[in-house]
Amino acid sequence: MSFFRLLLRWLILIVGAIVGLAFFLFAVVAFVTILLLSLLTGRKPNMQFRMNRSPWAQRRPQAPADGDVVDIEAREVKAPAAPPLPLQPPPRH
């Protein structure tokens, strides 16, 4: 019986190692493929993961399409009264 348990443990260990190695190799191949494609096309890969933090919250109304006219109130932007302060560290005493 102990031989059977030892054999089963080794089998589970070997199968787990093979599955883990397969996932690792898949990740490496995917990384190299994305890297080569981005180098060949000259564009950065768009790999953004978005997750809905509160799936039951109400959805915001959609922004108007590009062809729609949006009426806004225009206002002038005034120049600052004084120039901004220079970025310097505080004096040490």
User: Which assembly state applies to the chains in this document?
Assistant: single chain
Mean pLDDT: 83
- What does the radius of gyration come to? 30 Å
User: Separation of termini?
Assistant: 80 Å
Please state the structural category.
mainly alpha
Low-confidence stretches: none
Order of helices and strands: H
Helix content: 40-55%
Biggest sheet record: none
Q: Number of helical segments?
A: 1
Rough outline = elongated
Bin the strand percentage: under 5%
Short description:
This protein is mostly helical and 93 residues long.
Helices and strands, with pairings:
Blueprint: H1 2-41
Describe this structure in words.
The protein is mainly alpha-helical and 93 residues long. It has a domain of 45 residues. 43% of the residues lie in helices and 0% in strands. It is built from one helix and no strands. It is elongated and about 90 Å long. It starts with a helix and ends in a 52-residue tail after the last helix. Keywords: Membrane, Transmembrane, Transmembrane helix. It comes from Pelomonas parva. This is DUF4229 domain-containing protein.
Characteristic terms for this protein:
93 residues; transmembrane helix; 0% strand; membrane; mainly alpha
